[in-house]
Design a protein that fits this description.
heterodimer, A: 673 residues, alpha+beta, 3-stranded antiparallel beta sheet, 53% helix, 11% strand, globular, B: 383 residues, alpha/beta, 6-stranded mixed beta sheet, 4-stranded mixed beta sheet, 10 strands, 48% helix
């Protein structure tokens, strides 16, 4: 009734000229005005302390790099609503975007940002490098991928597979960009199945050279970042064929362009063309027409060929030898997982800030419209995702530490954790940005508002450095192997956080109270319970298949649904554990209190997963209690929403106009200037 | 020290011109250095004008050859010596509150910078909507030479200058003329001093506080001055290369690398200036500008207040008193800084200047509440 009355009144006013009501409509106090959330929202905890906890390391280094970007014209600064925003001009042509990406890299190079990235050693250098990648990724995915290919893939391959003379010859030049590297692994016909690649390398002992050849169209190297325009050198993965014996996949260095950018003889390069995102990266395709490279170009830490053409390898098992070749991809996976978390932060910071300033509908006539974030439904959309990204931040920090402190013994853990976190974080990222885009309504569709555009830019994350589904299958396989090993040797579970399997199965109380639901021990129990039960079930089902005489591969393939659920359960539990550990480092106070609520919201959101009901880990009543508690937590976290996104430490310039004064950013005067 | 009430009252002259109020800083012998009284008076006036619907515009200018040379350091030192650090900090607390009020003012402030504008003088003008430079303007933030750091919200406005010009200006105390001020954005307009009376009359005649209208009126008297050939603003490439470095030490070595390549008097002079400045000041100033780049003007002032309390408490260094002695009191221009070298000012020491003052009577700067006024969008963008 009220709304109908209002409409009628408005229509009447339109019709009756000079009515007092109409004059009122025109006065400025009837207009919407932007009120910065900072003026109305209070911070209950120290956001800079929270930021230090979330970023985890190198905060000053990050800020310096943010500053280098904001203060340079190369990063396309634009003023909207009185504030400066930086973001590439995605309306530029693919060629222009690629040139800008390269110019930005040159600028950072001149400013010494990459100093020590290849020649430096140790935890500190590697963590600093991760921090820089996170910052650059916040500006643009293309720049971080272009750098990632050069430093982590090309440079990493030389570090990991090369020996001293390769290090001496290439690392410094790589760091200074005297050469530009790329990484030719994927082919048109083979992506995730690297062992199936078709490029062939043979050895000519008369000249002491290797001969690299692309025997068929499906063997062309594909998606090679940097190859289409800029790269001068590449790592080539190929089947090494020595005296008629295929020794499996090996890596060599080949030059593809001279210093002036001319393509080398016997190399053919084509462009992969325009893509749905990442157009600042020049992905290319490469054909090798019996390209000859000196014998020293074989990266020989794993295997070598003697001058007279004998194959020599310290690792006899071809499976292990192959696994050794994939290690640089681990660094890439760590980067992708971490970067995905930071992209989600951008989306959430924008959507939540917008929801704190945008109003829609009044509850009663003549009342002010309600802020989006004051709607329980809007809180329910965004705040559980915010909690998830807090959890994943701690997970990402753990993963980085695991990586930089790697030892030969921790390789398996790194592989399993990085695979599962990469898949989980990137899938979540896509889900989160999509939700944030929708939460911003039509404004989310404008490229300048970033949140929508991020989807196209980051879609590739679920595919590169290992398809997410395949990675998750590998996680389940690894967990299966742990289980079988423990059973066979009648030993306890050790590592991968599976120690809880040694304890009695946790019991979920039949009636869940609010206090229980917010207790971290209960939350941990519930997550462990699911992982344990799924692992038991997966092992039982796979074993049954094996007992029927099916192959292991076939058994895994048929049990793919359980494998997926298990991979997710492992990941959720492992991430939760890192949250609890981060929380434990804090002294009692408001920061810890708020973080405790965030942790509960994350845990309970995990418990809402369909597996809990599907397999009966939670009763219907308990599932209802979980859902009710989530709503309560959302409303309790609502007052902290601004502080929680401010703690991301992302400078305003890296968000977007709708996160700030979106009225002024769209004003007529802004059109004229 | 003590001055009579009447002469104190004359330190800020007030003219009522229909919808405009013209405030003149009137301590020409002291080059209009801001006494505590002047700060209080300005605060009082600005607060009252904000509530007064008959005031739409505030014009601020200085009598004599200076707009304002900054705070009254002699008075600060006097209070510091007689009443402890808290008494000294009171000057800054009042001053920063005024800076915040001006930065978030709901009505346009036009500052006519027809002369020297330094330190606190910049705090009283740069935060306002319009800053009019002339051929007589002389800008500087010279704090690092006296053991302080660019405060009064400088970590907000210097950090937003193009490239790394803010770091350069803040660390070296470089002097800028009116053309340079306009080029880098410290000034919004350049009006030849001969036209100032006409401009003032025109501004006093309007009945609107609309920034667009005010801007177009000032525009009518404005000129586009050309930079001198020797202007530092023509050296932005070198400034960006060097002052974008991570630490003060690295900035110095970058400058030294530049002179190896080619002899350059300006670079050599810049190196000398940095070497003469207080090492502690340089390090906290650089950090302050870098941190300020990501903070709103309120948080910048709150942080600067913490920093200045640490400076006055002298727990880590007494460079402020030493700078005062050497530059302003004895004028021997030979301060003995302690710590004496950059490398002795460790990151941990710098960190402490940014921490909350740990003392029962130490408290954070309380910013006046601004939510009851409808703030213009250019103010909202600064929060």
């Amino acid at each position: 009734m009220d709304r109908a009355y209002q409409r009628t009144r408005i229509l009447t006013n339109h019709l009756i000229l000079n009515s007092p009501a109409q004059t009122d409509c025109l006065t400025s106090n009837e207009c919407l005005s932007y009120s910065p959330p900072e003026l109305s929202e209070k911070y209950a905890f120290d956001v800079s302390e929270m930021r230090r906890l979330m970023d985890g390391h190198d905060v000053e280094e990050r800020d310096r790099l943010f500053g280098l970007i904001i203060q340079s014209k190369l990063f396309n600064p634009r003023v909207r609503g009185g504030k400066v925003f930086v973001s590439p001009d995605y309306n530029q042509s693919m060629e222009q975007q690629r040139e800008m990406t390269w110019k930005r890299i040159e600028y950072l190079l001149e400013r010494g940002v990459f100093g020590g990235w290849m020649t430096g050693k140790g935890e500190e250098v590697e963590m600093k490098r991760f921090a820089c990648f996170e910052v650059l990724g916040l500006f643009d995915h293309s720049i971080s991928i272009k750098l990632g290919v050069h430093f982590f893939l090309w440079g990493g391959a030389i570090q990991f597979f090369g020996t001293k003379h390769h290090h001496d010859k290439w690392l410094r030049d790589t760091e200074n960009y005297l050469i530009k590297g790329c990484f030719s692994m994927t082919e048109l016909g083979h992506g995730s199945n690297v062992r199936g690649i078709e490029t062939v390398t043979t050895y000519d002992s008369n000249t002491g050279e290797f001969i690299i050849n692309t025997p068929c169209e499906s063997a062309q190297k594909y998606w090679i970042g940097g190859a289409a325009k800029h790269a001068t050198h590449t790592i080539v993965f190929s089947q090494l064929n020595i005296n008629g014996t295929n020794e499996g996949v090996h890596a060599l260095i080949a030059q593809i362009r001279d210093a002036d950018g001319n393509v080398c003889p016997n190399i053919r390069i084509a462009d992969c063309g325009h893509k749905i995102g990442l157009n600042g990266v020049d992905n290319g395709r490469i054909w090798f027409d019996n390209v000859r490279v000196p014998r020293e170009n074989l990266l020989n830490s794993v295997a070598d060929v003697s001058p007279d053409g004998k194959y020599l390898s310290a690792i006899k098992d071809p499976d292990q030898r192959f696994a050794a070749f994939l290690s640089p991809l681990t660094a890439g996976r760590v980067n992708i997982a971490v970067n995905a978390v930071y992209q989600s932060k951008v989306g959430l910071a924008i959507a939540i800030r917008y929801a704190l300033t945008r109003r829609a509908f009044s509850l009663k006539a003549n009342e002010p419209e309600v802020l989006l974030l004051d709607y329980p439904s809007h809180q329910r959309r965004l705040l559980p995702l915010l909690a998830k990204i807090y959890a994943m931040s701690f997970g990402a920090n753990y993963l980085k530490m695991l990586y930089v402190r790697r030892t030969p013994q921790s390789n398996k853990t790194i592989h399993v954790v990085s695979s599962s976190f990469k898949a989980t974080c990137t899938w979540s990222n896509m889900q989160i940005i999509q939700e944030c885009r929708e939460a911003c309504g039509g404004q989310g569709l404008k490229t300048e508002n970033r949140v929508g555009h991020l989807k196209a830019e980051h879609d590739v994350q679920s595919t590169f450095e290992g398809d997410n589904n395949i990675l998750m299958q590998q996680v389940s396989k690894a967990l299966f192997a742990e289980y079988v090993a423990a059973q066979k040797r009648n030993k306890v579970f050790k590592g991968l956080g599976l120690e809880h399997m040694n304890k009695p199965c946790p019991v979920i109380p039949s009636q869940l109270t609010s206090t229980t639901l917010r207790c971290s021990q209960f939350q941990m129990d519930a997550l462990c319970l699911r992982e344990r039960e799924l692992l038991n079930r997966f092992v039982a089902d796979v074993s049954q298949c094996l007992a029927r005489g099916e192959s292991k591969e076939h058994a895994f393939n048929t049990n793919y649904q359980l494998a997926e659920d298990l991979g997710k359960a492992f990941s959720d539990r492992a991430i939760f554990q890192t949250f609890v550990e981060a929380e434990a480092t804090l002294a009692a106070g408001s920061l810890k209190d708020v973080l405790g609520m965030v942790r509960s919201l994350y845990a309970l959101t995990c418990l809402e997963d369909v597996t809990y009901l599907r397999y009966g880990y939670l009763s219907v009543d308990n599932a209802t209690a979980v859902r009710r508690e989530i709503t309560k937590l959302c409303s309790e976290l609502r007052p902290h929403a601004l502080a929680l996104v401010s703690s991301f430490g992302i400078p305003d310039a890296f968000l977007s106009p709708i996160a700030f004064n979106w009225i002024d950013a769209n004003s007529w005067s802004s059109v004229q200037h | 020290m003590a001055s009579s009430v009447s002469s104190q009252h004359d330190q800020v002259l007030v003219e009522v011109k229909s919808f405009a109020r013209v405030l003149t800083l009137n301590r020409p012998k002291q080059l209009n250095a801001l006494s505590l009284h002047m700060i209080s008076r300005l605060l009082e006036l600005f607060l009252a004008y904000e509530e007064d619907p008959n005031v739409k515009l505030v014009i601020l200018k200085g009598k004599g050859r200076a707009f304002c040379t900054g705070g009254d350091v002699a008075a600060v030192v006097h209070d510091l010596r007689t009443g402890g650090w808290r008494a000294g900090a009171n000057h800054f607390m009042k001053g920063y509150t005024l800076n915040y009020l001006m930065a978030t003012y709901s009505k346009p402030q036009v500052s006519l910078l027809n002369g020297i504008v330094m330190g606190g003088g910049n705090g009283a003008s740069m935060h306002g909507r319009f800053r009019v430079a002339t051929e007589n303007s002389l800008f500087a933030m010279p704090e690092t030479a006296v053991g302080l750091f660019p405060d009064v919200g400088a970590s907000y406005f210097l950090s937003r200058l193009p490239g790394f010009f803010g770091e350069y200006v803040g660390l070296t105390g470089a002097r800028l003329d009116g053309a340079e001020m306009l080029a880098c954005g410290l000034a919004t307009h350049f009006v030849p001093s001969a036209k100032l009376p006409m401009l003032e009359a025109a501004l006093c005649a309007i009945d609107s506080g609309d920034p667009e209208i005010i801007s177009s009126i000032i525009g009518r008297y404005s000129e586009q001055p050309s930079l001198k050939e020797q202007s530092v603003y023509n050296r932005l490439d070198v400034i960006d290369r060097c002052f974008s470095q991570k630490t003060v030490e690295e900035i110095l070595s970058a400058l030294e690398r530049e002179v190896v390549d080619r002899r350059d008097r300006w670079i050599s002079a810049t190196i000398q200036t940095l070497k003469r400045a207080s090492p502690t000041s340089l390090k906290i100033s650089l950090r302050s500008i870098r941190v300020g780049r990501f903070q709103g003007v309120g948080p910048c002032l709150v942080r600067e207040y913490r920093m200045v309390c640490h400076v006055l408490r002298g727990e880590f260094s007494n460079d402020f008193l030493e700078g005062y002695r050497a530059i302003l009191l004895d004028k021997d221009k030979n301060p003995k800084w302690e710590p004496s070298k950059l490398e002795l000012v460790t990151d941990t020491k710098v960190d402490r200047y940014f921490s909350k003052v740990n003392n029962e009577d130490g408290e954070d700067l309380k910013l006046p509440v601004r939510s009851k006024f409808k703030l213009p969008s250019y103010v909202v963008a600064k929060l």
